[in-house]
Design goal:
The complex is a heterodimer. In chain A, helix 2 packs across helix 10, helix 6 runs antiparallel to helix 7 and helix 13 runs antiparallel to helix 14. Chain A is about 75% helix and about 0% strand. Chain A has 27 helices and no strands. Chain A is mostly helical. Helices cover about 25% and strands about 20% of the residues of chain B. Chain B is globular and about 55 Å long. Classes of the chains: A mainly alpha, B alpha/beta.
């Protein structure tokens, strides 16, 4: 019903559009000469947001831009949703170059996202808010703002934009439900998920999203029920099959998790990057079991396979994750060197992904240096990471730097300074654990408690989660485990002890 | 599954917030030291260098966004801040949203306010603290 309503609004606009710009006051003016282009943009919305068919949506936008190459907003939308990094860059440039043909609001959007891309954050923010003040109820404006703010980890502001919009398009509900979940407002998230599922009862994605959010909330059995419901609606919806496997792994049933991963690998032909991602998750099941030899074999196979296929970033990531659980620091350093060599190859990878991977490798090196007391490696690697962070507005790179800097300051007993950095990396269990301890040491027991609760409820199926959270929970829930020394005792129980 | 390729999944933690100190666009002060900022917000400094009286505009001290400001600028609890605001009613104004703060600052010569960086509009000017903008590392009003 909502999709039809928006289609109707645009048709009305189109009907009166002797001019090139749609006229309705609360709808973003789309400046194009072609009514067919307007129809295609609407179709791209339905495909990308409501049906989560991103590749098809990209094709539709490409078609629209062949019809009207001067359609600046079309170039901008394609730049934002393209899966091809070269196309992202090319389309952003075209959007900027053609913005003179567009309405004021479209120009503001293009310039906001250009500023963001150029690391000019303050002008980007003011332009975003300018366009939001003009079109607070337009679905494209709300979607782009919600998406960009979430990328910036500004969840509260992202939610405020949606709540102020009064919109209830299924695609927006899906995205915003995740934003609520990231802020642990699960009841609001589930309420949106109920509406999303009711709006698209035959679509597997609402069930898949519902499952993922239930898993974030730690409601694993219900998550598996929803993943199975998604597969019942569409047996080819592979992300739900791997969602089941990830969930069993988080629940602690690694044997069942591996069975579910294998079912997925046999049943589905997967895009290469996704196949590597879930192979890595399967390797992590062995880390969770403490069977590092088996984990090594699988990570080695993933890295070798990625190398053979000239996929530098997945290869580097496999080496990096393998380094993280190594009991011997020399081995960890050797693996991180392999990871760094792979990213330097940079084959078949977008520049941003390579830089993000490099930042995470450097962060891991800093942690090894901290653990071994290697001051020179600690200082030089942190300095390299600081330079990368200063020259980038990439949140992953910034977080890697702050996590590393926080770990260094913590090891130097500079707890207040460490807190300022660790608070910028709260999506990483290593940082959360240090942060809770730093709060404790500075006498802020309420923040320490809140951070411990966050860590105990951290349910992402990552290697960092595997290395920190299960052991932390064990101690956290055990009254005989002295809360003042939880961080210390857990550090001693980590695989990487020297 | 989410639409678009999103960043790495978030944990559900409160990420560090960034706040901007904003003044009206005619204000010639572009930078304050931390000490100067504290003196202004504690009503020890009541006029700008050009002689214009200072009016401070804030969110309610009990709001989540104000907690960092209370700790780092006022050095007060929410209750203490509420009492302080009450006793300085002619100097300090409470607004119910960042938009309201910015509208007040934009229309009041000599006004200074504090807002979430991501609410910033073009109608006000950002004042640096210790030479730093809110996006720079080491900025005072960044944290949880």
């Amino acid at each position: 019903m909502i999709q039809m309503l928006f289609a109707f609004i645009l048709l009305l606009s189109a009907g009166t559009a002797a001019a090139q710009t749609s006229q309705r006051a609360d709808v973003l003016p789309l400046t194009t000469k072609s009514e067919e282009v307007r129809r295609l943009v609407e179709k791209a919305w339905d495909l990308d947001l409501d049906q989560v068919q991103q590749e098809q949506a990209i094709e539709v936008l490409r078609k629209a831009l062949k019809i009207d190459p001067n359609f600046a907003m079309g170039h901008e939308l394609l730049a934002q949703i393209s899966l091809d990094p070269a196309e992202q860059v090319r389309e952003q440039q075209k959007a900027f170059a053609t913005r003179g043909h567009a309405s004021v609001a479209e120009r503001l959007i293009v310039e906001w996202l250009q500023d963001a891309s150029d690391h000019k954050l303050i002008p980007a923010i003011t332009k975003m808010n300018d366009v939001l003040s003009r079109y607070p109820h337009d679905k494209w404006v709300v979607f782009l703002a919600n998406w960009w703010l979430t990328q910036q980890t500004q969840y509260d502001r992202a939610i405020a934009v949606f709540e102020n919009s009064g919109l209830d398009s299924p695609g927006l509900m899906n995205n915003v439900a995740y934003t609520y979940a990231y802020t642990r407002q699960f009841e609001k998230s589930f309420a949106l998920m109920d509406k999303y599922a009711a709006a698209l009862p035959k679509d597997p994605n609402p069930q898949d999203s519902y499952a993922e959010i239930l898993r974030l909330a730690g409601r694993f059995d219900q998550a598996i029920e929803h993943y199975r419901a998604a597969l019942a609606l569409d047996s080819g919806f592979y992300s739900s099959q791997f969602g089941i496997a990830d969930t069993y792994s988080l629940m602690g049933d690694q044997v069942r998790a591996r069975q579910e991963y294998e079912i997925g690998f046999k049943k589905f032909s997967l895009p290469e990057l996704l196949r590597v991602q879930w192979q890595t998750r399967e390797a992590i099941t062995f880390v969770r079991d403490g069977d590092y030899a088996a984990a090594d074999r699988l990570f080695q196979a993933i890295a070798d396979d990625a190398h053979a296929k000239h996929m530098s970033q997945p290869e580097a990531d496999a080496w990096r994750q393998m380094a993280m659980y190594q009991p011997r620091p020399k081995q960890a350093i050797a693996l991180l060197a392999k990871a760094q060599a792979a990213v330097q190859q940079g084959k078949n990878a977008m520049a941003a992904a390579i830089q993000q991977e490099l930042a995470q490798i450097l962060r891991a090196r800093v942690e090894v240096a901290v653990d071994t007391g290697n001051k020179e490696m600690k200082a030089s690697t942190l300095a390299q990471l600081a330079r990368m962070s200063r020259n980038s507005s990439d949140k992953i790179i910034e977080s890697a730097y702050h996590g590393a800097a926080g770990a260094v300051l913590f090891s130097d007993h500079k707890y207040a300074d460490a807190i300022a950095h660790l608070e910028e990396d709260t999506n990483n269990p290593f940082s959360l654990q240090l942060l809770a301890e730093a709060y404790e040491k500075t006498g802020d027991s309420s923040e320490a408690h809140r951070t411990n609760e966050t860590l105990a409820n951290f349910n992402d199926p990552t290697v960092e989660q595997a290395l920190v959270v299960p052991a932390f929970r064990k101690c956290y829930q055990d009254p005989s485990c002295d809360s003042n020394f939880k961080g210390v005792s857990l550090k001693k129980s980590f695989p990487r002890t020297f | 599954m989410l639409a678009l390729v999103w960043m790495a999944a978030a944990s559900g933690t409160a990420h560090a917030k960034q706040f901007a100190i904003v003044a009206d666009s005619a204000n010639s002060t572009t930078n304050l030291t931390s000490a100067e900022l504290v003196k202004i917000f504690n009503a020890h400094t009541r006029v700008w260098p050009d002689g214009k009286p200072i009016t401070i505009v804030l969110r309610d001290p009990s709001s989540a966004d104000m907690q960092l400001i209370l700790r780092r600028v006022f050095n007060m609890t929410a209750d203490e801040a509420r009492t302080f605001i009450h006793t300085h009613a002619g100097i300090i104004v409470v607004a119910d949203s960042d938009d309201a703060i910015q509208r007040f600052v934009a229309n009041t010569r000599g006004a200074i306010g504090v807002v979430d960086l991501y609410s910033l509009t073009k109608d006000v000017r950002v004042v640096k603290i210790d030479g730093k903008l809110p996006v720079e590392q080491g900025y005072l009003l960044r944290g949880n």
